[in-house]
């Protein structure tokens, strides 16, 4: 039964991102161990739904929840214009995957506690999602927060995988740093690809460096193995011998937003099947 299966997605992440954004590195709080990945992939293969060969595109709703500490931009109260720009970035990035996104609703909540302390597995993120989440398995809920303190301090974002939805529907969605949206102050991560990256997890993709050079990998054959995350835009980096140069331009690595440009055909195939299996979406 799908409902009996759950992943331990959120085991924390090091705090390497802080305002005022001097000498920063991307930090994603979405994590799965090799052992849990093996279990997840076994379940996926046993329950796999192949995507619809005749469907070319799926349109998915986004429900955006602005969680701010006050009504100022610096306090997380981002305007509609930045959210609109972010959805445009997402649509461009996912065009090759066959997913288009529409903003189905935006709400704003003033809560300094949620803004500051929402993080993987915290009581604040649980309360926030229970109070605000909308829609079903195929609806992307985005929560923009501050990540200023506690276990989430320094994160750019985190997400749930499709396979966790049946047993933890309320937890489903993506949480991002408010200033990572286009025009935000989190340079070099302010072109909108934090959400592109976290939405990649939400459609079923792992980090390109999952498992390093000899681990289980990201379960996609056309992303070369990578020993560790890449930062900046290190052209020619080859951290695992024999597999090809590292996929530094892939949205599922850790490079600067300006360096990220692509999903591979293999990632597209995987995301389509993950979405069909766990979210009931045919692409």
From TrEMBL:
InterPro entries: MetalloPept_cat_dom_sf, Peptidase_M43. SUPFAM superfamilies: Metalloproteases ('zincins'), catalytic domain. Residues 176-274 form the Peptidase M43 pregnancy-associated plasma-A domain. Residues 216-225 have a biased composition (Polar residues). Residues 216-235 are annotated as: Disordered. GO terms for biological process: proteolysis. Pfam families: Peptidase_M43. Residues 1-18 form the signal peptide. Keywords: Disulfide bond, Hydrolase, Metal-binding, Metalloprotease, Protease, Signal, Zinc. One of its GO terms (molecular function) is metal ion binding. The keyword Disulfide bond applies. Belongs to the peptidase M43B family. This is Peptidase M43 pregnancy-associated plasma-A domain-containing protein.
């Amino acid at each position: 039964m799908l409902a009996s299966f759950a992943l331990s997605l959120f085991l924390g992440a090091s705090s390497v991102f802080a305002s005022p954004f001097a000498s920063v590195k991307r930090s994603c709080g979405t994590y799965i161990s090799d052992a849990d990945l093996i279990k997840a992939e076994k379940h996926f293969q046993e329950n796999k739904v192949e995507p619809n060969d005749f469907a070319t595109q799926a349109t998915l709703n986004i429900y955006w929840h602005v969680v701010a500490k006050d009504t100022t931009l610096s306090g997380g109260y981002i305007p509609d214009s930045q959210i609109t720009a972010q959805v445009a970035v997402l649509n461009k990035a996912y065009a090759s995957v066959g997913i288009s996104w529409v903003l189905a609703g935006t709400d704003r909540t003033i809560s300094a506690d949620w803004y500051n302390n929402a993080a993987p597995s915290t009581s604040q993120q649980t309360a926030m999602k229970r109070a605000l989440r909308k829609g079903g398995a195929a609806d992307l809920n985005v929560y923009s927060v501050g990540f200023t303190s506690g276990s989430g301090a320094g994160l750019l974002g985190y997400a749930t995988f499709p396979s966790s939805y049946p047993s933890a529907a309320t937890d489903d969605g993506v949480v991002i740093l408010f200033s990572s949206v286009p025009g935000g102050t989190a340079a070099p991560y302010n072109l909108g690809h934090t959400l592109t990256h976290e939405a990649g997890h939400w459609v079923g993709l792992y980090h390109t460096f999952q498992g390093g050079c000899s681990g289980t990998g990201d379960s996609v054959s056309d992303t070369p193995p990578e020993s560790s995350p890449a930062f900046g835009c290190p052209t020619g980096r080859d951290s695992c011998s024999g597999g090809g140069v590292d996929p530094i331009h892939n949205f599922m690595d850790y490079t600067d937003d300006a360096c990220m440009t692509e999903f591979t055909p293999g990632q597209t195939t995987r995301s389509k099947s993950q979405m069909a299996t766990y979210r009931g979406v045919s692409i």
